[in-house]
Each structure stands twice: as structure tokens, then as C-alpha cells.
Amino acid sequence: MTGGVRRPLDTMTYTIHNYSYTEPVIVVSGITVGGDSEMVPRERLTGVPFAATAGYATLAEEANWLRSLHTYTFRRINTDLIYYKGPSGIEETLDLSQCGAEGWCCDTGQNICYFHQAGVDSILEFSLAGASSYACTLLHDEDDIPNTSKGLYFATDGGNQCYMAKPCARLSKDGVEGPAVPMAHVTYHWLCFDIAASQATANAER
Q1: pLDDT given for residue 17 in this prediction
Q2: Is 196 helix (H, G, I), strand (E, B) or coil?
Q3: SS3 call for 13
Q4: CA–CA dist 6, 11 (Å, integer)
Q5: What is the phi/psi pair of residue 197, to 5°?
Q6: Are 135 and 68 in contact (CB under 8 A)?
């Protein structure tokens, strides 16, 4: 016997046709007894329905977590145009050449706004209206060299501090004052988390 712990043998007595005899009873728990292949410890089950179901459940939890992530892309292609594809899924454009004197200017749908004023860092403001939450961070995409994005800072707001009077994300850059724009010819993304979905997934894993 291999793989187990030695213990006193239990016995069982049989009586057949008035003839009695006693034999040992071997109690087995995950051990190998002699050469009996039936007694070899079993492999972990992976090919039966309930094992497959457990695997699907794990995949479903991961899929739910991925669905809780949302990205909104904004980019500057040339000197004057800012493109933004926000929660609406429609790409909109702000033409900075149409922004005149100091202060705020926005696209027609008020989903991209720009603020500039002498002595104050410029602001680009993007609508988050309809987003699953305002828990967001900034993703870099093809900004080439670290200096391109050096000094960026940002914030999100539920609406009361947003010029467009609806939930927004704001981007500025240290020392970049009006009429300069706080982003070069690059692409960024707001990555926002659906907090409720993320929490539901975390609870399911406990």
C-alpha cells in the first residue's frame, strides 16, 4: 500500500454454509492499493457537465468585468480640430479656429468645450453624459514621447463644476495657457469603470 497512513486493520466476519472466516477490511482514501488501477487517486474532473459549468461561470464573471470598462476617444489631428467620440457613440468635432476671445467655446452639441485665458491653464472639457460612472482615468495612445504628455492633469465631475452643465471630464496641462491647447497632435482615451458592475463581479467572486 502506498500514499496512505498505516492504521490498524478493521475486520469483518463472514458465515457461509456454517463455515466462518474473518478477513481484513481496508479503508481507502485517495491511496493506491497494490496494483489495482481502480484505487489510484483520481485526476481533477474537467470534462463533466458540472466542471464545465464552473468554467463557464468564471468566464462569465470575467466578461462582466470587461463589460464594465468603457473608453471614450479624443484626438487632435491638426492645429484646429478636436475630435471626441463620447458615451453617445457619435464622433463630434470642435473647430478651435471658431473660438474667438478669451473664455469658453463649445461645439454645437456642447460635448466638447475649450477654455482659454491669459495667465490661466487652458481647459478641454468633454461630456460624460450617459456614462456608466464618472470613475475615469486617462489612457495614452500614440503620444510619441514622454514630453508630449508631461504635465497633464485632469478631473471628472457630475455636472455642477462643468461649463456644459452636465457630467464631464476636464483636461489641462501645467503652464499651457490660452490661447494654447493642452494637447498636441495625439490621441487619448477616457477609460471609465462601471462601478456597480465591477462591484457585482467582485461580490460574485467572494
Answers
A1: 55
A2: helix
A3: strand
A4: 15
A5: -65, -40
A6: no
- Residue ranges, the chain, pLDDT below 70: 1-67, 197-206
Contact, 182 vs 122, CB < 8 A?
A: yes
Are the CB atoms for 113 and 124 separated by under 8 Å?
A: yes
Whether the CB-CB separation of 114 and 179 falls below 8 Å is answered with no
| Residues 6 or more apart in contact with residue 78 via CB below 8 angstroms | 185
Query: Quick one: cell of 84?
Result: 471626441
Decide: helix, strand or coil at residue 199: helix
CB count in 10 Å sphere of residue 183 = 22
Q: Going by C-beta distance under 8 Å and a sequence separation of 6 or more, which residues neighbour residue 49?
A: none
Backbone angles phi, psi at 99, to 5 degrees: -85, 125
Number of Cα atoms under 13 Å in the Cβ half of residue 120:
10
- Identify whether the C-beta of residue 141 lies closer than 8 Å to the C-beta of residue 188: yes
pLDDT tens readout for residues 135-145: 999 999 877 78
Listed residue (100, 105, 107) closest to 115, CA to CA = 105
